[in-house]
Amino acid sequence: MPRAETLTPALPQGFSADELAAAARWVVARIRPAASTRSIAVTLEALQAVAHRARRGPVCIPDLLPGSGLEVLHIPAAQPGMCQLASLTGEIDQAALRDIGRALRAEFVASGADMLRLEADDGAELIVYAIEVRAIVMAATGVQLVETTQQ
Predict the structure, then answer these.
(1) pTM, to two decimals
(2) How far is CA 59 from the centre of its chain?
(3) What are the pLDDT digits (tens) for 18-62?
(4) How many Cβ atoms from other residues are within 10 Å of residue 6's Cβ?
């Protein structure tokens, strides 16, 4: 998957449509059969929009990539500290999320990695990690996980 070391100047706080499409092609190339490239790219775009709205503090989404055993931690720029577990609902394609999770987990297994960290130009971070290393990721990022019950 392409690294996000330098982001497009037109979108200094996010990935361009071309970068999201490249990421979608990366997933589709690894998962057969997979959701459509377009569906995966649209889902990645929707997730990016969610991340842009999460400016109040870190958000951990353990069930974002169903069946993969991976969790996602989003840390907005200059927002270390307390974190809440969150769930996503709505118009995000669940099949695309499963495919993204399967492709990432397969890459983790093939490379021996247990996490992927992307940093945006504004300092925001997105960390995808195996649930087994949650405590290490939380300690390394200085984030304290607070579980809340939703009613």
Answers:
(1) 0.76
(2) 11
(3) 888 999 999 999 887 877 888 999 888 888 877 777 666 788 888
(4) 7
